[in-house]
């Protein structure tokens, strides 16, 4: 194993130490964050628009790199990874976006299978895993459908299935209910809660006050790039 990918023993699946992020236009998005997230936790990330939540989330899967500081994912310091090693660490992390990002010309099955095809899994493993995760998100009967034939909630469930088909240790959900009606949003939360109960660490950035205040989990609040609250069973704390 490359020294860059050697793990340091810990129950912390994510560790941030003195993390700063500035963009070329001199906008400072993250200001000295220190925190850790344990394996199996469910964490909400909240805060006003422009607070730095998106940058905070993107740094966890190396879409963005910090200007200073260290980020460890499952014991691996991803801030020091060479570009060729980034795909390896991303296999440990599933990401769900607000706008689904499904491939419109592929069926539900094919969209989910794509994540396994890129790592050259065998056809038999792909079929079994895809159908297993479609069962988790209650979409086995839609395997042959195209995204255009699905509701918004169904498309988000496909996106979740695609994110978990590699059995990631961490699932990052960036506003996963942002484009959905309230009833559909609660259905998505049921699925995320079930995934968490199966052992996956879930980190969810959200503006949904009702969800955060009803389904009590750890809350990390970010304002002006700083963690201003970190509560075990927190509340949203902002006007929606």
Automatic annotation (TrEMBL):
Its main location: membrane. The keyword Hydrolase does not apply. Keywords: ATP-binding, Cell cycle, Cell division, Cell membrane, Membrane, Nucleotide-binding, Transport. One of its GO terms (molecular function) is ATP hydrolysis activity. Residues 14-240 form the ABC transporter domain. It is found in: Cell membrane. InterPro entries: AAA+_ATPase, ABC_transporter-like_ATP-bd, ABC_transporter-like_CS, ABC_transpr_LolD-like, Cell_div_FtsE, P-loop_NTPase. One of its GO terms (cellular component) is plasma membrane. It comes from the Bacteria. One of its GO terms (biological process) is cell division. It is a peripheral membrane protein. PANTHER family: CELL DIVISION ATP-BINDING PROTEIN FTSE, IMPORT ATP-BINDING PROTEIN. Homodimer. Forms a membrane-associated complex with FtsX. Part of the ABC transporter FtsEX involved in cellular division. Belongs to the ABC transporter superfamily. This is Cell division ATP-binding protein FtsE. It comes from Halalkalibacter hemicellulosilyticusJCM 9152.
